[in-house]
């Protein structure tokens, strides 16, 4: 379905981003990866699917590095057809204890980076009259939780950004949508499980049960593979007229 197309997924060396990158590669897309950590393992996993793989180590809090990454995609991969704005970080603290530098980093990485990638990807998508922008928001783009002020503000922001750009492209072959996962068992969430286990003297399994029980009625984690399948649907022609949605995959979290 995506043969001949290039997908760029930010924050795709781990977790949800890697799951979406793998799903897009399975559909034949060339993939440009981004993120920190075990880059070689992520590249090898995608390359094993028989597609061309690129990588750029841009820090998503740095607009100049983002511009350099987008230039690489243009120069070496013919531009970005599927842009997945996924990179994200978390910090948990009450607002009066929230370090200002963490607030700035979360807003830059979880929200502003999507503005910088999108504004640079859109001209090429418009020229081809086809494109997909998928913003990985969160249930926290729709509802709040205590002690996550920066994350909730950034995720609500990216849902608003998604709707605006969807309107600006509404008569074109470019669609812009957000995905809103509930709990997904990735390093970002494992840190919160570890903190909960340490604070409550709980086992890892009990901390997971407690975490899910508070918010996610299915009591099941959403998986990166399921989110990858949702991304494929949003890239398909069946989704040509899906525009500006914030699509939950959250085990019922936001139905409550
Ligand atoms: P993760 O920690 O597994 O992956 C985050 C990725 O972002 C990694 O590849 C990391 O290297 C990259 N990254 C972090 N800072 C970066 C920076 N400054 N520049 C470039 N790359 C950077 O986390 P995840 O859970 O897979 O999260 C991915 C996205 O999904 C985030 O936007 C997160 O907010 C969102 N999300 C996660 C959950 C969940 O339960 N895990 C739920 C809803 C939304």
UniProtKB/TrEMBL annotation:
One of its GO terms (biological process) is monocarboxylic acid metabolic process. GO terms for molecular function: 3-hydroxybutyrate dehydrogenase activity. SUPFAM superfamilies: NAD(P)-binding Rossmann-fold domains. Coiled coil: none annotated. Keywords: Oxidoreductase. Its EC number is 1.1.1.30. It holds the Pfam family adh_short. It is an enzyme of class 1 (oxidoreductase). Residues 5-186 form the Ketoreductase domain. CDD domains: HBDH_SDR_c. InterPro entries: 3-OHbutyrate_DH (IPR011294), KR_dom (IPR057326), NAD(P)-bd_dom_sf (IPR036291), Sc_DH/Rdtase_CS (IPR020904), SDR (IPR050259), SDR_fam (IPR002347). Gene3D superfamilies: NAD(P)-binding Rossmann-like Domain (3.40.50.720). It comes from the Bacteria. Belongs to the short-chain dehydrogenases/reductases (SDR) family. This is D-beta-hydroxybutyrate dehydrogenase. It comes from Piscinibacter sakaiensis.
